[in-house]
UniProtKB/TrEMBL annotation:
Transmembrane segments: none annotated. InterPro entries: DExx_box_DNA_helicase_dom_sf (IPR013986), DNA_helicase_UvrD-like_C (IPR014017), DNA_helicase_UvrD/REP (IPR000212), P-loop_NTPase (IPR027417), UvrD-like_ATP-bd (IPR014016). Belongs to the helicase family. UvrD subfamily. GO terms for molecular function: 3'-5' DNA helicase activity; ATP binding; ATP hydrolysis activity; DNA binding. It catalyses: Couples ATP hydrolysis with the unwinding of duplex DNA by translocating in the 3'-5' direction; ATP + H2O = ADP + phosphate + H(+). It is an enzyme of class 5 (isomerase). The keyword Hydrolase applies. This is DNA 3'-5' helicase.
Length: 544
């Protein structure tokens, strides 16, 4: 294609985005779009085309994507993660709850006590309960899991989806119709979630978006096959969003070259064909400023000589105030650090007490249950089987296994525990009520500090930053097997690279302090020499 003017590029960008919303008579649409291709803007165009009182449901996989979509689309739709939506339905419709009470608990950590129950009741190591749920299989494991969940009156992630799927399939009289259903990140859905989408696709016009190149969660039984099957399905019309409005030209070119290498080497097979193009009207200024990917070799990296941390800190300190202000005002990170352990821990240690940055922690949708949490919950729910069971698990008083065995009669745990133990725990609960709670007044945020987050490769999904640092890029780390790189390792690097809005730094070392001395990642060879710039960081470099 000949070079286009900025106006021609913008006209093409609007055409692709508006085409999805204009073809309103098509009930099932699939949008295949690469990283930063403007899915949220396309979703917004779809919402803007709806009448003001429309019922719109938006579902996504990741919590941080949910927060982004809620910020941009929440005024005109209901935005949920998948398990959040199922939690919502269980609260709303009594007929779907079945063995649960109206006031059931949302407690993903209940999995751990159910595993311990199996060990006690069956005198053996607990099986994998989650895989059958995610595979949408009804068997003795899912029956045991749901039975114990009912006893504890608690739900978690996968079991809430499993419950709702099978309840809706047998309760067709519940009206869940919508004027529009939007599904994001479909490549990360497992069979249960994919089956659920198929079930609700009859409830209203549906638009599903995803990218098979970014599927990282096969460890939770997600499969890119689900989106590939939709792409080939006759009932879905396929759309594309070819422009990357996030990344600079050097990132887009390098990402495309990397995927070409993966296909040529048969590492990634059966890709959905898609365009992933640089967008000059939006990224031209940044692209002229940042023309290289920095490939940084440090002379050493270890716990005592943390050159990865020192290099990253040095670069973050050089970020201009305007750059920091822009990232904060537009709702993305100033800097994103992506690494596997042990490098991630070392970098976290380096930054943990740094007063000059705001280190953003990962947000959970639930509170992990430690003993103190269980005691506090008992203060509010003194007869709850769930919180008494957690106390049993932590304290393990004499005869606790027999108490668990006795709970299969469905008798309340508070009546099964010995009087002395029950009284001591309740005394602790009464003492808790009289203690002063810690001051939880939120601290003021210093908007002049760079906003930084340190994550795994999988944890980088749904994030982006002006400056991205990918640390620990040695053979043996990524990819794990340089002779036969896996498709998951390739996708991890592709996803990490395309988090970049402006400048990307890739760090490796041949001297890892005895951990694993080796070579730079073979993936770095698949970036054109003209798109990368090498730097060697040793003691002399840091002393200058």
């Amino acid at each position: 294609m000949p070079d286009l003017s900025n106006k021609e590029h913008m006209d093409r960008l609007k055409k692709f985005s508006q085409k999805i919303s204009r073809e309103s008579s098509i009930p099932k649409k699939l949008v295949v779009a690469g990283p930063g291709a403007g899915k949220t803007k396309s979703f917004k165009a779809l919402l803007d085309a709806q009448p003001a009182d429309s019922g719109v449901l938006v579902l996504t996989f990741l919590g941080n994507l949910k927060r982004e979509l809620e910020r941009d689309l929440g005024h005109a739709s209901s935005v949920f993660t998948f398990h959040g939506y199922c939690h919502h339905l269980l609260r709303k419709y009594a007929v779907l709850r079945r063995g649960l009470s109206n006031d059931f608990f949302y407690c993903p950590d209940s999995l751990e006590i159910i595993r311990e129950d199996w060990k006690v009741l069956n005198n053996g190591e607990p099986p994998d309960f989650i895989s059958p749920l995610r595979s949408n299989l009804k068997n003795e494991l899912t029956e045991f899991y749901l039975d114990r969940s009912d006893y504890y009156d608690a739900i978690g992630f996968d079991d809430s989806i499993f419950r709702i799927y099978h309840s809706l399939a047998s309760e067709p009289e519940i009206d869940l119709s919508y004027d529009l259903i939007l599904i994001d990140e479909f490549q990360d859905f497992n069979k249960l979630e994919s089956d659920f989408v198929e079930l609700i696709s009859s409830l209203g016009p549906i638009v599903i978006a995803g990218d098979d190149d970014q599927g990282l969660y096969e460890d939770r039984l997600a499969s890119p096959k689900h989106i590939s099957d939709l792409y080939l399905a006759a009932e879905y019309k396929n759309y594309e969003l070819p422009y990357c409005t996030r990344c600079t030209k050097v990132i887009v070119d390098s990402a495309n070259k990397f995927m070409q290498e993966c296909e040529a080497r048969n590492i990634i097979k059966n890709r959905i064909p898609k365009k992933f193009e640089y967008c000059p009207p939006i990224k031209e200024i940044d692209s002229k400023q940042y023309t290289f990917i920095e490939v940084v070799e440090t002379s050493v990296q270890s716990g005592s000589v943390n050159y990865f941390g020192r290099y990253i800190e040095r670069e973050i300190r050089s970020i201009l105030p305007d750059d920091i202000a822009k990232s904060r005002s537009e709702g993305f990170l100033t800097a994103l650090i992506i690494a596997s352990n042990p490098f991630r821990r070392a970098i976290e240690d380096h930054f943990r007490s740094n007063p000059d940055i705001e280190l953003q922690s990962s947000k959970n949708d639930f509170e992990p249950v430690d003993r103190d949490t269980a005691i506090r919950k008992l203060a509010d729910y003194p007869k709850s089987n769930l919180w008494w069971r957690f106390i049993l698990s932590y304290d393990k008083p004499e005869g606790w296994q027999e108490i668990v065995k006795g709970s299969t009669s469905k008798d309340a745990l508070i009546g099964l525990v010995p009087d002395e133990f029950r009284n001591s725990v309740l005394e602790e609960v009464r003492g808790l009520r009289s203690r002063d709670r810690a001051d939880k007044t939120p601290q003021p945020i210093d908007e002049t500090k760079p906003l930084v987050k340190i994550v795994t490769f999988e944890g980088s999904k749904g994030l982006s930053a002006s400056h991205v640092f990918i640390a620990g890029m040695q053979d043996g780390t990524l990819p794990r097997n340089p002779k036969e790189p896996s498709h998951i390792d390739a996708k991890k690097f592709y996803v990490a690279l395309t988090r970049t809005r402006k400048h990307c730094h890739i760090l490796f070392s041949r001297n890892l302090g005895g951990y694993n001395n080796g070579k730079p990642s073979i993936f770095l060879d698949w970036i054109d020499d003209g798109n990368k710039r090498s730097l060697y960081a040793d003691k002399t470099y840091f002393n200058n």
